[in-house]
Amino acid sequence: MLGAVNPPVFENSLFTFATAEELGEAIRNEDERYVYWRGTNPTVDLAQRKLAALERGERAKCFGSGMGAISATISSIVSAGDHVLVLGAVYGPTTQFLRYLEKFGVTHTHVDDLAGCDSAIRDSTRLLYFESPSYMAYAVVDIAEVTGWARERGLVTVMDNTWSTPLFQKPLTMGVDLVVHSLSKYIGGHSDLVGGVVIGPSRLVRPLALKEYQLYGAAMSPHDAAKVIKGLRTLPVRMAAHQERGLAVAAFLQDHPAVRAVNHPGLPSHPGHAIAVRQMAGFSSLFSLVLDTESREEVGAFLDKLRHFRIGVSWGGFESLVNAPALSTEESVRATMGIPVGLVRLSVGLEPADVLIKDLGLALEGVGRLA
């Protein structure tokens, strides 16, 4: 428009029509027509089309938060009496939401692998939900194998692909029915927006957009949509840098005597590395390490010693962040996910790797058996 390099931001909350008939027709198709901000908006619509194309999906719907996308997506699939299989560790609030659904008669079971799925599946099972790499542990799921198993049993599959971004992994091409993302992480990339998206075939996304999206009210603002569009423009450059720095830091940590384990799928020592290389085009910089300690106090002291890794709950931005579930996650959720006390999550930002490695090395002095 007018030669503008950046798309305009449509701030208006509503759109008017020449006739009542036109308004009625637009309301019946509010997932595609501009009626009211709570439905859709030209700026948000542009972000949705870009995200759908990048993920190789037919349609995308953006939300005001990642949990807005996740809760609406799950709700669009299940009804009272249905059962959900959760494969591997998933985002803590997702587990909390599934527990919340129990009051409406929706049950769920956490399993570790497909053998567990075989044992836990019921006649009422409707949905298989998973992440790959998984939450906090960063275990790798063979996506094609899992979706094939689910398809044979008539289950809908939903996968959280936030860790990889659509650049490094495209689950829809491997049989996943719906993909969700927190746009607050790598796609936004600058820790200045909160948003989410669900992407998939029109037959699943359109009903969700007309019902759950509208009723839950987690609408994305046009300003946040503009930030998503801007983040997508630099995503390939940023992800290449995140990958390089993340692998360098992970390689340093895996050889450190105060570290029991490093959970990074990009390391050849990772149990799922071969599968990851097969189904992913690259690796982000979010991973975890397990300190050689069982003390929550010692974990907290390690975080406090860090100077370049800031203590924070999110990730995927330009700044490096650190968090420890034992200090911040509900105990029952942590137990369900099998997360040890000494697990620490690192989000490696865009600072020089040698600076971050030195920071970690100094903070690790005195941890566990080095004390």
UniProtKB/TrEMBL annotation:
GO CC annotation terms, alphabetical: cytoplasm
UniProt keyword terms in alphabetical order: Lyase, Pyridoxal phosphate
A single MF term (Gene Ontology): methionine gamma-lyase activity
Known catalytic reactions: L-homocysteine + H2O = 2-oxobutanoate + hydrogen sulfide + NH4(+) + H(+); L-methionine + H2O = methanethiol + 2-oxobutanoate + NH4(+)
N6-(pyridoxal phosphate)lysine found at: 185
GO aspect biological process, one term: transsulfuration
Pfam families named among the record's database cross-references: Cys_Met_Meta_PP (PF01053)
CDD domains: CGS_like
The EC number(s) this enzyme carries: 4.4.1.2
Highest taxon, organism lineage: Bacteria
Cofactors that this protein relies on: pyridoxal 5'-phosphate
PANTHER family: CYSTATHIONINE GAMMA-LYASE (PTHR11808:SF80), TRANS-SULFURATION ENZYME FAMILY MEMBER (PTHR11808)
Protein family (similarity comment): Belongs to the trans-sulfuration enzymes family.
Name of the protein this chain belongs to: homocysteine desulfhydrase
Species, as recorded: Nonomuraea solani
